[in-house]
TrEMBL record:
Organism: Thiopseudomonas alkaliphila
Places the protein is found: Cell membrane
GO cellular component: plasma membrane
Molecular function GO labels: mechanosensitive monoatomic ion channel activity
Protein name: Mechanosensitive channel MscK
GO BP term, pick one: intracellular water homeostasis
Domain Mechanosensitive ion channel MscS as annotated: residue spans: 929-994
Main location group: membrane
Keyword Cell inner membrane (UniProt): no
């Protein structure tokens, strides 16, 4: 009756609520009868519809019409089958109700007359039976036990069904009423009758008849609900009592069987011992007798082992049967109760009743040893299969015939006894092997089933409310309920548990107290050591990488005394304790860990502490963070006992007003402290918007738990709060480790720089010494070493953090499979008989979002990380790393897109029409875009151009700076970025100046005057080319006399440079040097000359103005200077 009353804890008068629900459903049933169609159609028969379905092929219908009519007729048959099932269920219910009063009377009488037989009397009644009779009785009792377990499961299912039937029937009858009204409207509509086919009319009529029978069945069940509930309750009590008695009988019978086996084995050992004592002094006979005795001892050991395995196997089978029944009833309970508070209480009880499976991992080795011994026994039996020959072989060395006759007879008796022993041993060993194999299989099955059931229970308990939602009534009765709970707090039991642990193991508490005293006494020395160590920080010779780990260890020693006291108290409470004391002990152990982590962090942040001296964090920021960390520690210590104890006692959550109020207050304070820590403006660091948003979401998580707790999800909040505390502790450890690693790398980089400086001074030659020039070995830049090491270290730390985070949350990840039950929409793939309907659940939607987020993160960060960690260390050609990372980004995006669409149920048969449409669009508007995309793929694979190449295309020259899907970016010499479609690089003529080699040739043209000394000029030009460091010696530069122009001798200087960047610089340097050298050696570089003749018509003379003179006049020469003239007659 306790289970029945738990469904009505919301009301003080449960019978009044039940009567009201029954009356309401009766009224709904009457309304359903009034809504019947005015003209009842003839009742359909399954034979008639089946005949129509068989004659369908003879009707001349199109393929589409044939498929539609066939589907309608098949649905009609399904509804008619459902109608017949409801009719049969009504008949069975009528039969059950007819026999229910008699069954109730018989069960009550049987329960009143039931007096359990004591185990002693039952054992005495079967003590004189043989082992065969005992084994037969044991088999029959086991069959009776299985039948009772099945009957008890049926009775429990009947009780649960009847307790929840009024609520379920109300919703079901309401939906039936609405559907009946809808069908009647469709059947009576004239326009619908004209347009709809006869098959659809038959479908509606079949559905109407089926739900009408369903309504009748539900009304009949409601009428008989009280009687069925009484029947189930009485039968359940009777079956429980009988089951307890039968389980006891099974244990007694098994013990009797084991005793008989043990007795027989001991008797065999005693007989063999007596034979050995009577054997006399003959060595051969004594040896063979002792061998028989060894076999008998092994037989006794095998018998004892078999008895032990049989007892264990019996216990495991009983547990397995109980778990199987629980598993079979669980699905029905979940579907019937559907997230109610009664379901929560039932699930809590079932979780507590689950057995703790102790899996014997040595069974596999024992089975292998037994099989090996079986093989040895078979070989041994083969040796003595013919006793006479075996005895003759033994007596072959004996010479006295008269003595051999007597000895032969005794040996034959010994060998025959051995054969009997081997038969018994082989039989017992086979039975032992069978028991071991069965035990191993049962243990595996029990473990798998228990784990599956435990996961299902955890999943359901996580997603269903454990308490009623908080309302004004809860606040009104809070003082009264809180005082009542305070009166029943197990403080005295907790103190007794600690005292019992002290009495049992006082030396442990004395040693713990001694350690605490020693730590407190060492604090002055630790302070002095830390002060001295802090003075070495920053000194390039005294500072070391071990200074910070040592300081952290000493800081942990400061926080260790309180942690040891909490851990000792927790261990004392949990020592050989059960119930609340064990949970309080576990809570104190967790509190010790939290105190050690956050108290250490608070000491790290103190003035002149590790954060300020070692990590170089700002003192003002440390003071603010230390205050918040202390507040966080207080809040966590306040909430941890509630989180641990209440989480392990879910059955009492509805009465835990103190714990619930503590959770609400603690979560609000936790959110305030975390928000202050995250939103505080820290100088020297500027987190991006995404990190700040993520931190704010984490800070607001406690407020979400407050809302969940207020709505009744108290158990869910407890589970998540415990994981949140673990996550915070893990993040603190990661933060300290990361800061320690960064400081260690900084110290290493500083020492490396100092060592290089010392080495350079040592290796520097003195001024007086004549040392040949030594080429220095190229070394990696110190900043580059530190940056790469820091990236690698942070990558390892982040990897460890996420692995630890997964380990922390792993047991809760399975609860999210519950989201599979929440359907978003359905997808139908295929057609006809191959059509498959797939349900896309809320979990699939969340997985799609996760896939999209992971794809975005990987596509954005993984290529760059790969380039830094791997590609930068490889000797790749120019642009190869960019091509690799770009292709990797494409692959990541493609894989993520496919995974995201697959999670949403978008398969290829859905995408093929989209692909066909895109293909059509590619032939028209998207042709150029697709061509550019394919060209971009060709460029990345074929690599006619790479990042950093100097190219010329369509009179455009510049450096390739970016290659994208559609276009490539070229930066010209004016630093303007030109976007060129990828198709141009594939289809047009392209000049790549640095595709295979960056070596290029330059041609400098020089014009010399006619009066120039050509030999000297050639020598000077060769000298200029040889002096320039940018000019390559191989290929050798050349000087060529290319022609004689109107005013000059034309020369070309042809030379090569290594890099493209040397072209302009080398030409500038060479031309400048040539001009200077030519001037110094009076060599004229000719230019075009112009002779002007001025003719005087009066005197008939001519005046010649040289080009130099014209240039001077044009530049504004003084008028007093006469021009140079040349007269011609």
């Amino acid at each position: 009756m306790a289970l029945q009353q738990s469904t009505h804890f919301n009301s003080s008068y449960p019978w009044l609520r039940r009567c009201w629900l029954i009356a309401l459903i009766f009224c709904l049933g009457c309304c359903t009868l009034l809504l019947q169609p005015t003209v009842q159609a003839a009742e359909l028969s399954a034979e008639q519809v089946q005949q129509e379905l068989d004659d369908l092929d003879s009707r001349k219908l199109t393929e589409t019409e044939h498929a539609t009519v066939q589907q309608l007729l098949e649905q009609t048959l399904s509804w008619l089958k459902t109608r017949d099932d409801y009719v049969r269920a009504q008949q069975q219910l009528s039969q059950q109700l007819a026999t229910a009063p008699e069954q109730i009377r018989q069960a009550e009488q049987a329960l009143q007359r039931f007096v359990p037989q004591s185990a002693e009397r039952f054992a005495e009644a079967h003590s004189n039976q043989s082992i065969a009779e005992l084994e037969q009785a044991l088999e029959q009792t086991n069959q009776q036990l299985n039948a009772l377990q099945k009957q008890l499961s049926d009775a429990n299912s009947l009780v649960i069904t009847t307790q929840t039937r009024p609520e379920r029937a109300q919703a079901e009858v309401t939906s039936i009423q609405a559907r009946i009204q809808e069908i009647n409207t469709q059947l009576k509509a004239k326009e619908a009758a004209k347009t709809s086919s006869p098959e659809r009319q038959e479908l509606l009529q079949a559905e109407l008849q089926a739900i009408q029978e369903q309504s009748k069945l539900r009304r009949a069940e409601l009428d008989a609900n009280n009687q069925l509930q009484e029947l189930g309750s009485v039968q359940r009590d009777l079956y429980r009592a009988q089951l307890t008695e039968v389980e006891q009988q099974v244990a007694v019978l098994q013990e009797l069987v084991n005793t008989h086996r043990q007795r027989e084995s001991q008797q065999a050992v005693e007989e063999l011992s007596l034979e050995i004592s009577q054997a006399g002094t003959d060595t051969l006979l004594v040896r063979e007798g002792r061998l028989n005795l060894q076999l008998s001892d092994y037989l006794l050991m095998v018998t004892e082992r078999r008895n032990d395995l049989t007892q264990r196997n019996l216990k495991v089978r009983q547990q397995l049967e109980t778990v199987q029944q629980t598993d079979q009833a669980l699905e029905e309970q979940i579907s019937v109760l559907q997230g109610s508070l009664l379901l929560a209480k039932i699930l809590y009880q079932q979780q507590q009743a689950l057995p703790s499976v102790s899996f014997d991992r040595t069974l596999a080795e024992q089975i292998a040893d037994m099989r090996l011994y079986q093989f040895e026994l078979r070989q041994f039996r083969e040796k003595i299969r013919e006793p006479e020959r075996y005895v003759d072989k033994l007596l072959g060395v004996t010479s006295d015939p008269s003595e051999n006759a007597e000895l032969r007879g005794k040996l034959l008796d010994t060998i025959k006894t051995r054969n009997q022993l081997l038969d018994k041993l082989s039989k017992e060993l086979n039975a032992l092997l069978s028991e071991a194999i069965n035990l191993q299989l049962n243990q595996k099955q029990l473990k798998n089933l228990s784990d599956s059931l435990r996961a299902t229970l955890a999943e359901q308990m996580f997603w269903i409310p454990s308490n009623k939602p908080l309302d004004a009534g809860w606040l009104q009765h809070f003082p009264e309920n809180a005082l009542k709970q305070l009166e029943h707090l197990p403080l005295q039991a907790a103190w007794q548990g600690v005292w019992q642990a002290w009495v049992a193991m006082p030396w442990l508490f004395i040693g713990l107290a001694a350690v605490v005293v020693v730590l407190l006494a060492l604090r002055p020395k630790l302070n002095a050591y830390v002060k001295k160590s802090n003075q070495d920080i920053g000194h390039f010779r005294l500072d070391g990488q071990l200074h910070t780990p040592k300081a952290l260890l000493i800081t942990m020693l400061y926080a260790l005394p309180v942690s040891l006291l909490l851990a000792g108290a927790g261990w004392g409470l949990g020592y050989q304790a059960e119930g609340v004391n064990r949970y309080l002990g576990e809570a104190l152990l967790v509190m010790a860990q939290v105190w050690l982590v956050f108290s250490t962090l608070a000491r790290i942040l103190k003035p002149h502490g590790i954060a300020e001296v070692h990590f170089r964090w700002l003192p003002s920021e440390n003071t603010f963070a230390r205050k918040q960390v202390r507040g966080l520690l207080v809040v966590m210590l306040m909430m941890l006992p509630v989180v641990i104890v209440a989480q392990y006692q879910p059955a009492i959550l509805s009465e835990d007003v103190l714990g619930l109020s503590t959770m609400l207050v603690g979560l609000v304070l936790l959110s305030v402290v975390m928000t202050r820590l995250i939103l505080h403006s820290y100088r020297g660091s500027a987190p991006n918007a995404f990190k700040r948003f993520l931190g704010l979401v984490v800070a607001m998580a406690p407020l979400g738990l407050v809302i969940a707790t207020s709505l009744g999800y108290y158990y869910t909040s407890l589970k998540l709060t415990g994981r949140l505390f673990g996550t915070l502790s893990l993040f603190v450890v990661w933060l300290v480790l990361e800061a320690t690693v960064v400081r260690g790398l900084a110290v290493a980089a500083r020492r490396l720089a100092w060592q290089r400086s010392v080495n350079s001074k040592v290796n520097q030659p003195h001024e007086s010494s004549e040392v040949p020039e030594v080429v220095a070995e190229p070394q990696l830049d110190i900043s580059q070493i530190n940056e790469q090491s820091l990236r690698l270290a942070r990558l390892i730390l982040w990897g460890g953090f996420f692995i630890s985070l997964y380990w922390l949350w792993a047991d809760l990840l399975s609860v999210f499979t519950y989201l599979d039950n929440i359907s978003l929409y359905q997808n139908t793939s295929g057609s006809g008989d191959a059509a498959v309907t797939e349900v896309v659940s809320l979990r699939d939607g969340i997985n799609a979002l996760l896939f999209a987020a992971v794809t975005f993160i990987l596509a954005r960060n993984l290529p760059g990380l790969l380039e830094v960690m791997l590609l930068s260390r490889m000797k790749l050609a120019q642009g190869s790393s960019y091509a690799t990372t770009t292709l990797l980004s494409y692959c990541i995006v493609a894989t993520g897109t496919v995974a995201t669409l697959a999670s949403l149920g978008v398969s290829w048969d859905k995408l093929q029409w989209l692909v066909a449409a895109l293909s059509l669009g590619l032939g028209f508007g998207l042709q150029e875009i697709f061509a550019n995309f394919v060209s971009g793929i060709i460029i990345l694979f074929e690599r006619p151009v790479r990042i950093g190449d100097l190219v010329t295309i369509r009179n455009i020259s510049g450096t390739v700076s970016r290659i994208r899907i559609r276009a490539t970016t070229i930066t010209d010499f004016d630093r303007k970025e030109l976007i060129i479609p990828n198709k141009v690089f594939v289809t047009d003529q392209l000049m790549n100046w640095s595709l295979s080699d960056t070596m290029t040739r330059l041609v400098v043209k020089i014009g010399l005057a006619y009066e120039t000394d050509l030999v000297l000029a050639r020598k000077l030009m060769q000298q200029v080319l040889q002096e320039n460091q940018r000019v390559l010696r191989d290929p050798e530069p050349g000087i060529y006399f290319t022609g004689i122009s109107a005013s000059t001798f034309d020369y070309e200087l042809r030379y090569y440079v290594r890099d493209l960047g040397d072209r302009s610089s080398s030409m500038d340097e060479i031309l400048t040097r040539l001009v200077l050298v030519f001037r110094d050696n009076a060599i004229d570089m000719a230019f075009n000359q112009l002779d002007v003749f001025i003719k005087n018509q009066h005197s008939e003379t001519e005046t010649h103005l040289a080009s130099t003179q014209l240039a001077t006049d044009a530049a504004g020469s003084p008028a007093s200077e006469p021009p140079r003239t040349q007269s011609r007659a």
